[in-house]
Here is the input.
Amino acid sequence: MKTIARDDYLQQLIDRKHNGLVKNVTGIRRCGKSYLLFTLFKQHLLDSGVPEDHIIEIALDDRANKSLRDPDVCYQYVKNSIKDNGLYYVMLDEVQFMPDFEDVLNGFLHFGNADVYVTGSNSRFLSTDIITEFRGRGDEIRVHPLSFAEYYAAVQGDWTDAWNDYMTFGGLPLVLAQPDDTAKTAYLNHLMDEIYLRDIIERNNIRNEAGFSELVDVLASGIGSLTNPTRLEHTFKSAAKLSISQPTIVKFLGYLEDAFLITKASRYDIKGRRHIGALSKYYFEDIGLRNARLNFRQQEETHIMENIIYNELKLRGYSVDVGIVNLPQRDNGTTSHRQVEVDFVANLGSNRYYIQSAFALPDEDKQAQEKRPLLNIGDSFRKVIIVGGNVRVSHDENGITTMGLKQFLLDRDSLNR
Here is the structure.
């Protein structure tokens, strides 16, 4: 398999060297965190002249390092490995295997000549807890599965073939190492059932495994659909004949989000400038895992494309909501308002983009349908329609930009073209 460059993430690590904070590399399991830290970043350190004995590596998920999961043993091991006043780089992989790891990492910071990096696969371990415990001394770097641009750089060849593979099998790095589609399917099925879901069930002591499994199926079938715990409860009662309370559904959703398997996009009233909490959308962090969960049965390119666009916006650093616009309409002389959706409202600093995902724009009616919400927003932020395939970037008289999916995915600055 060709070496996969993760240049953006590597640069984030390089930029954060020696900043006095614990660098927390987070993300879904098997997305490449360990490779980034122990291969790419370590090679950068060696190339920069750091002696190898000043790089302390501990893979806590390795059975050989089981004793180092004891916080006191690990602390003493690192302390004993620091033998002079030079700068040492301490790298711990899958730190959630260690109880009380926050105290250990705080202790490393007190050494004065230790630059500390950790990875973990659970957001509670490396977001909520560390922010609380470290009081501003933790620095998170979120790693995602391969973007399409990273994937395409590794596989090359025909763009359409690469896109078809990516939207089917997703962007987990080791998918590229599988020899054929059968092996890719088996790999993803194993990861989803035996690694991700089993880990969530055991970690959270879930007793209603049937209900949890059904929730994952419903979310996988309904990517891009508005839902909430109330709707999900009704779905279980009517379709699956299961009774799952709303509080349990809320907990299950939280477990899936904590494991980085899914991400929630909230609704945002664009003109009212406020979030609307009633309904949300859930997207899968990796589309290949979603497809595997459904045995690759529901391959609707429209919804898959929407999920991939959402993921691309997130990995570019945007906060992403589902936009709502109220359109006036007259019926029998009476004016009322109808809510229409803008697929994504993407914010980064002072920049905002309104984005529609449209698999195809075959005629003027479909074009008008996609443009109507954008035309009624009434502000000057950039408005973009992303169309499936390879479509040249164009701008209409109202300032709406239309671009192809290929241009959007392969050009990091495509939204500003």
User: Anything to note?
Assistant: The radius of gyration is 23 Å. DSSP finds 15 helices and 13 strands in the chain. The mean pLDDT is 91. The chain has three domains: 7-142, 148-266+275-297, 319-416.
